[in-house]
Amino acid sequence: MLNAVKNVKKKAWIVIGVASALVLSCAGVVWVDYGHVGEEEKRIADLEVQISKADRRIAKIPSIEDHVLRGRVVVKEYAKILPNDKDINQLVKRITEFSVASGVEIEELNDSDARNRGRRKSKDPFQKIRYKLKLRGALDEILDFMNRFENYERFVKVGQVKITSEDARTIGDAPAGPIKHKVELDLETYVYEPGRSSEPVEIKNADRRTIDILEREPVTNDLELDHYELVVKTDRRDPFIDPRRDASIGAGEEALANAQAEAQAKKMNELAATLAEIKKAVDEESKIDGFVPRVEFARRLSQKMAEFAAEIEELQAGNFFSSAKTRDRFVTEIADPFELLYRARKSLGRGVLVRQELENQLENMRRAFTEGRFEDIVAAAETIGGTKAANVDDPEIAEILSEIESVSGRAQARIEFSQIPLAITGYVYMPRYPVRSVVIINDQAYSPGEVLDDGIVVRSIDPSRVVFVYKTEKIEHLLN
Fold first, then answer.
1. Residue 445 CA to its chain's centroid (Å)
2. Whether pTM exceeds 0.70
């Protein structure tokens, strides 16, 4: 019995120990889990703060997208003052035109920066382009050349400028016209290439939203290029020329002050004045309004340039200028600039413009002929008819004028034919013998080959039409 009780107690203590161990273990697990719960609650709180911030940022996205869309429009609008690819490719031609118009001579033009811009690895969408030029010209010519870029429709900046004076005057051998200087200058501009930067973020319904944004807040381009019109003053002293006389000249130079030297100096002044007039005329040539006045102006200018070229050739052949320095200036200030001007005018294709205008007029007249607008053709031909007085020697222009005259003649024949009363009241068609067919016109019978009183020839008759010939123009008259 006693042993049984001991065993029961022993088992009880074992149960109590195991239960206590289980309780302590559970308490430990609960304690650890409670710590984890606290950490999770803190992390949840942090996430809720981040979510709240993200929600606020998300709420701002439409407004930010609106700013981006409007900003894209603003950038494109402002970029319009910058040259595009076509402008960059034609800027060399524009430089040549400005040099001809201003009178400066281009000795060197380096456009490698423009030609090699595609090889750049820069991601900047605004690419700087620089042209390096070496010029030669008088002060007024140089200022005129730079002023033309000041007033250019695209943004072009005259950068670094270096002028080297060529004042070589002497007492007895003063130059005809202004002294020339050597100039080194940089022309700088920018090209907008948005593709160089990262790809733009795609915005949903961007086109529609952009329209709505611009309706609410229109973009006003208040960015303008400043313009300055140069006023040429012929009495202005060239600051790059020393006005003092050269004291090193000896008495032997006084021989140049005779009548021959005076005549040579006078001739140089006359040549310089004539060359200046020709330069001005070349600059004005493309601004003449009206086809006929422009052709007449071109004819007079070509004639004047031909006469000037003949005079230069005569002076060179006869060694008119006895002074070596005067001869050199004659070449550098008269003969060579005129040769450059002549070639530049030819390269600009003034005649090509005239031919193109004539070709356009001819095409319009042919279209009008097809549409039956004969009066318009005759009126246009009368306007162009004044070009005959221009005595244009270009064979291509002469050929186009001949075609215009032919189309006009045909149109005039059609107009006259329409004014002749022709009452066709019947016809007899003989299919086996068409030449024996008969048509009744104004109560008279006519067969193919016969002539009406007004010089109209009946060419052919068939069941659907009568074909007449009037002043070599074939005209069909439908019978049904």
1. 64
2. no
